[in-house]
Design brief:
Elements (H helix, E strand, L loop, with lengths): L12 H11 L8 H14 L3 E5 L2 H12 L5 E4 L6 H8 L3 E4 L10 H10 L3 E7 L8 H11 L2 E5 L7 E2 L2 E2 L8 E5 L12 E5 L2 H11 L3 E2 L10 E2 L10 H11 L2 H18 L6 E2 L12 E4 L9 H10 L15 H5 L8 H9 E4 L7 H15 L2
Parallel strand pairs: 2-3, 2-4, 4-5, 5-8
Antiparallel strand pairs: 1-9, 6-7, 8-9, 10-11, 12-13, 13-14
Helix pairs in contact: 1-8, 2-8, 3-4, 3-7, 5-6
The structure holds pyridoxal-5'-phosphate.
């Protein structure tokens, strides 16, 4: 058995050909594939505007530059990749970490308690953890009632939906972002995208992606103006060609992820392995997360990870609470009361989940996992 990672891209001959075609064309970057990819993502997500950028972290950085000012307070989740709250710090704003609910997503009821306590909170950054979008009715209620800005980090969740609302459609948010890192549903190598329904936000993002430069039709041919301090967060045509090709297969990829999720659900019925949630038709399953109460077992989580690695199974942990990271502790974080996150962190790990995972490999993962846990 070859090593089975927790996530992996699927690149086929047509994907390779689309990249080769761009390599033979006139434009490797700032060419036509970028708009084509952005249009395809916007259409897929039912949203007005899309900007493709060099990675998901750049997407979050630009989104934060657009939404926030120095000193703004932003509620966010400890259960995410560092980039979500780092982007708040990048712009001199202040993350406030709120506990998670039982599905691993930020607890929106607790968010409301924070909003009631402090009318100066500017925004909430939610994450569709593992591919499972947050309750959109509650999100809409918070947005309407407390006049806050909402960012949806959908790095895990392209292809997900919640009662007909697609991830990235920004029905109840100002901005959403995607990541196209190889472990995600579709890949451009590195890559990301920002979606929004606001023309103002879109135009600001366009300029910030390219050094803060603006060029208008009444300028002389060589002229451009720098109006903001922007960055070079451009994505290449080579990457976008791969993204366009991958996006065409996204529904097939998700179908396969659904099959794998249902097989895991069935395998763990009445076992000590508890899926974070069972199949709900909404999650697009970037991750398949389970929880095990190690306090009741003779094996520790460290031993489980080591035993499975020895057997070529790469389970992973999503996530170490961000507020407990040394850098965050140095800023005064880490003592928030987050009992659900603490319990979740003790129990959670993610199992292999990607379209190319074969039934045979999945059976092997299930069999070895249960065997090692049961001693
Ligand atoms: C929830 C979340 N947000 C943001 C990112 C950052 O994306 P990227 O790796 O493309 O910079 C990731 C990446 O893993 C992520 O999981």
């Amino acid at each position: 058995m070859n090593f089975i990672p927790y996530g992996k891209q699927l690149i086929e001959q047509d994907d390779i050909q689309s990249v080769i075609d761009v390599l033979k064309s006139d434009y490797l970057t700032t060419g036509p594939k970028i708009k084509e990819f952005e249009n395809a993502i916007a259409k897929y997500s039912n949203v007005k505007y899309c900007i493709a950028v060099s990675n998901g972290t750049a997407a979050l950085h630009l989104a934060s530059l657009t939404l926030l000012n120095k000193g703004d307070k932003v509620i966010t989740t400890p259960n995410s990749f560092l980039a979500t709250s780092n982007s708040i710090l990048y712009v001199g704003a202040k993350p406030i970490f709120v506990d998670i609910a039982k599905d691993g997503n930020i607890d929106l009821d607790l968010c409301e308690e924070e909003l009631k306590k402090d009318s100066n909170i500017k925004a909430i950054y939610v994450v569709a953890f593992s591919g499972n979008m947050v309750n959109q009715d509650k999100l809409k209620y918070l947005r309407d009632t407390y006049s806050i800005l909402i960012l949806e980090d959908n790095a895990h969740a392209i292809g997900a939906s919640y009662n007909g609302i697609k991830s990235g459609s920004c029905v109840n948010s100002d901005i959403s972002i995607f990541s196209f890192h190889p472990v995600k549903h579709i890949t451009t190598g590195e890559g990301g995208a920002i979606t929004t329904n606001s023309k103002d936000i879109y135009e600001k993002l366009l300029s910030l992606r390219a050094h803060g430069i603006v060029k208008t039709s009444d300028m002389k041919p060589w002229e451009y103006e720098m109006k903001d301090l922007g960055y070079n967060y451009r994505i290449t045509d080579i990457q976008c060609a791969l993204g366009i090709s991958q996006l065409k297969k996204l529904s097939e990829f998700i179908k396969r992820r659904f099959e794998i999720a249902k097989q895991y659900d069935n395998a763990f019925l009445d076992s000590i392995v508890q899926p974070l949630y069972t199949f709900n038709g909404k999650s697009s399953y970037h991750l398949y997360v389970v929880q095990v109460d190690f306090s009741k077992l003779s094996i520790s989580k460290v031993d489980l990870f080591n035993e499975l690695r020895k057997k070529d199974i790469g389970i992973q942990l999503h996530y170490i609470p961000i507020n407990k990271q040394p850098y965050y502790k140095s800023l005064g974080y880490g003592n928030e009361v987050t009992p659900n996150m603490d319990e979740y962190y003790n129990k959670c790990f993610s199992l292999p989940m990607y379209p190319m995972l074969s039934n045979k490999e999945q059976d092997y993962v299930i069999r070895i996992l249960l065997k090692v846990l049961n001693g």
